[in-house]
Amino acid sequence: MLRHWQYAKRYRTQKHRCWYLLCPFLKMQTDQNASIVLFDGSCPICTAEINQYKQIAPAGRINWVDVSSDEFIPPLGKSRDVLMQRFHVITPDGTLISGAAAFVHVWEQLPGWRRLAALTKIPGALSVMELGYTNFLKIRPHVQSLFKKRFAWFVGKPHRKS
Question: Which of 17, 60, 84, 85 minimizes the number of CB atoms within 10 Å of its CB?
Answer without folding.
Answer: 60
